[in-house]
Design a protein that fits this description.
Layout (H helix, E strand, L loop, with lengths): L1 E5 L9 E2 H4 L3 H12 L3 E6 L3 E4 L3 E2 L11 H15 L7 E5 L15 E3 L8 H12 L15
Parallel strand pairs: 1-3, 1-6, 6-7
Antiparallel strand pairs: 2-5, 3-4
Length: 148
């Protein structure tokens, strides 16, 4: 099984493996869930496209949110080209927002699933993952810490 995680939020300031670059609570939650299921993690990067989590990449400031419709079509086409090289029937856990999944309807040779069972906003998504993983969550950034 593969997990496609959308890039998001703050990043480290030096080149590292893609899986270690992103530091947001949402990304860390998605990573923890994918690791819990034993999935091979791939990143849907607005800058680099679909890349293995182990790929060393430099930090960047590009986001799908500010892409024009034409730029987003090109990005989705690039992702689709990468996805089309994946073995038919492979299960893909999608852990990304809708803008990251525009290519999905055309890649019908794979089996996709959303572990949440429905669309969840970011906060509820992080809390759902925390409930599923409990104390087994491998990252410490899953809960907000109260000021003392």
């Amino acid at each position: 099984m593969l997990a496609f995680i959308g890039c998001c939020g703050p990043k480290l300031s030096t080149p590292v493996a893609a899986i270690d670059l992103y530091r947001s609570r949402l990304f860390l939650s998605h990573r923890a869930l994918a690791e819990h299921y034993g999935a091979e993690i791939w990143i849907l990067s607005s800058q680099y496209g679909l890349i293995k989590g182990s790929t060393i990449i430099a930090p960047y400031n590009r986001t799908l949110q500010f892409m024009s419709a034409a730029e987003l079509r090109v990005w989705n086409f690039t992702i689709l080209q990468s996805v089309n090289r994946i073995i038919p029937g492979t299960r893909i856990m999608t852990l990304a927002g809708g803008r990251y999944l525009g290519w999905q309807k055309q890649a019908t040779h794979l089996e996709y699933f959303n572990p949440f069972g429905r669309a969840l906003r970011l906060g509820p998504r992080v809390q759902w993952i925390k409930r599923q993983l409990g104390d087994a969550a491998p990252c410490g950034g899953l809960t907000k810490r109260r000021a003392q």
